[in-house]
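User: Run a structure prediction on this.
Assistant: Running it now.
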Amino acid sequence: MEAMGVYRKVLRAMAAARGKKVVGVRWVDTNKAREGDKADIRSRLVAKQFAVGTRDDIFAATPSLEAIKIMISMTASSGHGHTPRKRLMVLDVKRAFLHAEITEEVYVELPAEAKAESDGDVVGHLVKAMYGTRGAPMCWQTHITQHLKSMGFEPGIANPCIFQHRQRDLQMVMHVDDILVSGEPKGLQWCR
């Protein structure tokens, strides 16, 4: 988290002076191993910013199941009765939310291993979106959309989770950090 610049350490008094509550955090451990394999434990530090009240500024779109079905069908039928000329590629962005800048002022408790005695009473002032913050999905969606636009992709009008790259004949459906891309092998290699 330090290497990715997710937060900067500030004195707890700074958060208090700005009238901000410091959000608690906890480690969430997940075993990624398949049944019968040796344990493969992954840990993620997650903020505990619970939903209080209604907000319209934290919406993040998701694609419809029909969009995925249409993409699979179009890819499978791309060879006009022969072997399809297009392929599907599945991408998963690691630590997706930690790439996106956060759009609100959030302070989090830091785990003991992130503090030194010489730091004093410090908390983390988030610079990047962190798992467990309410705005993280929207921050990520804004970040990845800007990145894809810079690559030449156009977001869909009806659904902002569907993208197209006309010049490279690529289609993309994105569900948070899971991405399905359809295209010819050369275009998929470029996209990867």
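The first helix runs from residue 12 to 17.
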